[in-house]
Description:
Largest sheet of chain B: none
Order of helices and strands of chain B: HHHHHHHHHHHH
Low-confidence stretches of chain A: none
Number of strands of chain A: 21
Largest sheet of chain A: 6 strands, mixed
Number of domains of chain A: 2
Oligomer: heterodimer
CATH topology of the domain at 51-207 in chain B: MetI-like fold
Structural class of chain A: alpha+beta
CATH superfamily of the domain at 51-207 in chain B: MetI-like
Number of strands of chain B: 0
Strand content of chain B: under 5%
CATH class of the largest domain in chain A: Alpha Beta
Distance between the termini of chain B: 21 Å
Distance between the termini of chain A: 33 Å
Largest interface: A-B, 24 and 18 residues
Radius of gyration of chain B: 21 Å
Amino acid sequence: MSLSADIGVRLGPFNLDVALHASPDEVVAVVGPNGAGKSTLLRALAGLVRLDRGRTVLGGAVLDDVAAGAWLPPDRRPVAVVFQDGLLFPHLSALDNVAYGLRARSGGRAESRRRAGAWLERVGVDAGHAARRPAQLSGGLAQRVALARALATEPAMLLLDEPLSAVDIGAKAQLRRLLREQLAGTRAVRLVVTHDPVDAMALADRLVVIEAGRVTQRGTIAEVTTQPRSAWVAQLVGLNLFRGRAEAGRLVLSDGSALTVAGDLRGPAFALVHPRAVTLHRARPEGSARNAWAGEAAGVHLEGGRVRVQVAGAPSIVAEVTPAAAADLHLAAGGPVWVSVKATEIDLYPV
Amino acid sequence: MKRVAVPAALGVALMVLPLAGLLQHAPWSNLWTELASDQGLAALRLSLVCSLGALGVALVLGVPLAWVLARVPFPGRALVRALVTLPMVLPPVVGGVGLLGVFGRRGFLGRHFGSWPGFPLPFTTRGVVLAQAFVAMPFLVVAAEAGLRQLDARYEDAAATLGAGPWRRFRTVTLPLVAPSLAAGAALCWARALGEFGATITFAGSLPGRTRTLPTAIYADLQTRPDAAVALSVVLLGMSLAVLVALRGRWLGAR
């Protein structure tokens, strides 16, 4: 029962063009910046958006095949969706929301409601809350109901669209744990769309990174985070990523600037620099660091006892320093600053 | 403040004084006998039957029409919307003349279908229903379309992913969610049909027991039996107030 999808959808500013495979023994997170086409991909898989090109096969059943003119409407796909804001029917109680899918798939009223009640119990919604309308439920509870509603139809593929984004921080950790449990407990192809790296890492085994409608990277979480292949992923995991052309101990960047690097890699390459490896100075530094350049402290944020400083320059880079160092350098107000990075601290790998 | 208060007060007076005049003129002591007269009861019964019939026609035709206008993009949609709402501003008597032009004995449809079952329409109770529906349906269409436009179509998407086909989606999600708009539109539509005069008298005349509804009865009685006319007017006023009260949550209650 695995998914094999090759999806092309014309969007306004760009085309969504994504090939995707998923098997039932893994949870796949589709991550990427806002507007990358993640939600459109999910809607296409659910049958809510028609493909302009491509083919989707789920467990041997063809859901879409543009060339053959085949398209299965959403109500006939074995696919359930947990929508971003839950999208519970406002005129039905939580219980009737969960029973809706069972009823639609020709279940009897009493039996559907009984099974809906059991599903609500599984996701931790008690009978008192089951009788309430969605407007009377907290965001966390509503999302539990939405999850139960999707699971109750026992889909062959479960799609979750930013399932935690509408939930306040207090309820998030608990819901994330519940999602993890429930996702582990179902034998379906499971796809989670999210822009939140924490959610992706907590819920998924494998990441597919989408930017501007294209897959820019795919792999396990460890692979993607240790060797990011796009600025977005690097930023996501808090690292500096440069792309350029490596030649004889140098990486020439697109803006003409160059970094001195260790190793003899040649050709298109990524350079990864941890912000901790970036040193800041008030004046031109002297010492062993092969890379030094002047910049402007553009943004200063305190994060978990460390200060992340965004330095605008050629190239721009993020440095991580202690609050004491930030104070010594008078960084709070911004202003000129020198940057240095040891060549051996630059991780170089081919594009 | 004073400069607007005076015209504002005069405005209220313009709206309210005729009602006061009506109530002041009402034959309160023998209101019941006037209403319970054969002509009074016949007009009342006919008005209820015809206005509910017109509401039925408006629901059956108007809801799908509103759905198409709200959801289906097609060339000329704005024009169709304008044409469909035209009867709201068109003098009803013009509508009546137009209906005669279509369904009258020499109208372009009436000429051919005059002998078919259900025809002819002019000067029949069916004609009254048609005339009222012509004038009143736009109120339903406008309200229903607004309701459908405000509805988040993603609820229907959610229903689809749960296995609900188009008809089930419409019945279990769309309809309940637009019910408040639809009810308001239906109330306005019914009230408009109930008070319909111009198109009715032009297209269907004022035949006692067949086409003489409350408004046409009031007009007919005003010269000969003024007390009866005022009594029937009081009934129509009461019904209008009832519709207003039913809509209060929507319009009066809003701020």
